[in-house]
Amino acid sequence: MRLSFILMIFASLLFGEHIRWQSDFEKTLIEAKKEQKDILLLVLKRDCKDCKNIFRDIFTDKEVTKRVNDKYISIVVFFEAKDSYPVELFYTQQFPALFFVSRKDELFLNAPLFGAFTKESLLNSL
Protein backbone atom coordinates (compact mmCIF):
# COMPACT_ATOMS: atom_id res chain seq x y z
CA MET A 1 0.00 0.00 0.00
CA ARG A 2 2.73 2.44 0.93
CA LEU A 3 4.57 1.66 -2.30
CA SER A 4 1.48 2.35 -4.39
CA PHE A 5 1.08 5.73 -2.68
CA ILE A 6 4.71 6.63 -3.36
CA LEU A 7 4.32 5.53 -6.98
CA MET A 8 1.19 7.67 -7.33
CA ILE A 9 3.07 10.76 -6.10
CA PHE A 10 6.03 9.94 -8.35
CA ALA A 11 3.78 9.52 -11.39
CA SER A 12 2.14 12.87 -10.74
CA LEU A 13 5.59 14.46 -10.78
CA LEU A 14 6.52 12.86 -14.10
CA PHE A 15 3.53 13.75 -16.20
CA GLY A 16 2.69 17.36 -17.00
CA GLU A 17 2.04 20.16 -14.57
CA HIS A 18 2.18 19.25 -10.95
CA ILE A 19 2.23 20.83 -7.54
CA ARG A 20 5.82 21.41 -6.48
CA TRP A 21 5.72 19.70 -3.09
CA GLN A 22 8.42 20.40 -0.51
CA SER A 23 9.21 18.16 2.45
CA ASP A 24 11.06 20.41 4.92
CA PHE A 25 9.00 22.98 6.83
CA GLU A 26 11.86 25.34 7.70
CA LYS A 27 13.11 25.45 4.10
CA THR A 28 9.54 25.93 2.89
CA LEU A 29 9.08 28.88 5.25
CA ILE A 30 12.28 30.51 3.97
CA GLU A 31 11.25 29.97 0.34
CA ALA A 32 7.73 31.28 1.01
CA LYS A 33 9.11 34.51 2.45
CA LYS A 34 11.55 34.87 -0.44
CA GLU A 35 8.87 34.30 -3.10
CA GLN A 36 6.17 36.28 -1.22
CA LYS A 37 3.81 33.30 -1.17
CA ASP A 38 1.92 31.69 1.68
CA ILE A 39 2.25 28.03 2.70
CA LEU A 40 -0.04 25.12 1.92
CA LEU A 41 0.72 22.37 4.45
CA LEU A 42 -0.68 18.92 3.76
CA VAL A 43 -0.45 16.44 6.65
CA LEU A 44 -0.96 12.80 5.69
CA LYS A 45 -1.05 9.60 7.68
CA ARG A 46 0.37 6.35 6.41
CA ASP A 47 -2.25 3.80 5.37
CA CYS A 48 -4.91 6.51 5.03
CA LYS A 49 -7.24 5.78 2.11
CA ASP A 50 -8.50 9.37 1.81
CA CYS A 51 -4.89 10.61 1.75
CA LYS A 52 -4.19 8.54 -1.35
CA ASN A 53 -7.44 9.51 -3.01
CA ILE A 54 -6.88 13.25 -2.79
CA PHE A 55 -3.66 12.95 -4.79
CA ARG A 56 -5.43 10.99 -7.50
CA ASP A 57 -8.67 12.97 -7.52
CA ILE A 58 -7.74 16.53 -6.52
CA PHE A 59 -4.05 17.38 -6.61
CA THR A 60 -3.61 16.18 -10.20
CA ASP A 61 -6.33 18.55 -11.44
CA LYS A 62 -4.93 21.28 -13.72
CA GLU A 63 -6.97 24.11 -12.19
CA VAL A 64 -6.00 23.10 -8.64
CA THR A 65 -2.35 22.75 -9.65
CA LYS A 66 -2.22 26.18 -11.25
CA ARG A 67 -3.94 27.99 -8.39
CA VAL A 68 -1.83 26.26 -5.73
CA ASN A 69 1.47 26.90 -7.53
CA ASP A 70 0.56 30.54 -8.23
CA LYS A 71 -0.29 31.38 -4.62
CA TYR A 72 1.49 28.91 -2.32
CA ILE A 73 4.67 27.09 -1.53
CA SER A 74 3.39 23.59 -0.82
CA ILE A 75 4.69 21.08 1.66
CA VAL A 76 3.58 17.53 2.31
CA VAL A 77 4.51 15.75 5.55
CA PHE A 78 3.53 12.55 7.30
CA PHE A 79 1.97 12.79 10.75
CA GLU A 80 4.23 9.96 11.93
CA ALA A 81 7.33 12.05 11.09
CA LYS A 82 6.69 14.62 13.78
CA ASP A 83 10.16 16.12 13.45
CA SER A 84 9.48 17.25 9.86
CA TYR A 85 7.06 20.05 10.81
CA PRO A 86 5.94 21.98 13.94
CA VAL A 87 3.34 19.46 15.07
CA GLU A 88 2.39 21.62 18.06
CA LEU A 89 1.08 24.29 15.64
CA PHE A 90 -0.62 21.90 13.22
CA TYR A 91 -1.77 19.01 15.39
CA THR A 92 -4.66 16.96 14.07
CA GLN A 93 -6.24 13.53 14.32
CA GLN A 94 -8.17 13.91 11.05
CA PHE A 95 -6.43 12.98 7.81
CA PRO A 96 -5.68 14.26 5.35
CA ALA A 97 -5.36 17.72 6.87
CA LEU A 98 -4.69 20.78 4.73
CA PHE A 99 -3.56 23.97 6.45
CA PHE A 100 -3.36 27.43 4.83
CA VAL A 101 -0.49 29.16 6.62
CA SER A 102 0.72 32.77 6.55
CA ARG A 103 4.36 33.18 5.59
CA LYS A 104 4.54 36.21 7.91
CA ASP A 105 3.53 34.74 11.26
CA GLU A 106 2.72 31.04 10.64
CA LEU A 107 -0.93 31.60 11.60
CA PHE A 108 -3.92 30.15 9.76
CA LEU A 109 -5.11 32.18 6.78
CA ASN A 110 -8.44 30.36 6.82
CA ALA A 111 -10.00 27.21 8.23
CA PRO A 112 -8.13 23.97 7.51
CA LEU A 113 -9.69 21.22 5.42
CA PHE A 114 -9.93 17.77 7.00
CA GLY A 115 -10.77 14.31 5.74
CA ALA A 116 -12.13 13.58 2.29
CA PHE A 117 -12.47 17.17 1.10
CA THR A 118 -13.55 17.92 -2.45
CA LYS A 119 -11.99 19.82 -5.30
CA GLU A 120 -14.69 22.47 -4.90
CA SER A 121 -14.04 22.95 -1.19
CA LEU A 122 -10.32 23.28 -1.89
CA LEU A 123 -10.82 25.80 -4.70
CA ASN A 124 -13.14 27.84 -2.45
CA SER A 125 -10.43 27.94 0.22
CA LEU A 126 -7.59 28.95 -2.08
From TrEMBL:
InterPro entries: Thioredoxin-like_sf (IPR036249). It comes from the Bacteria. Pfam families: Thioredoxin_7. This is DUF255 domain-containing protein. It comes from Sulfurimonas denitrificans (strain ATCC 33889 / DSM 1251).
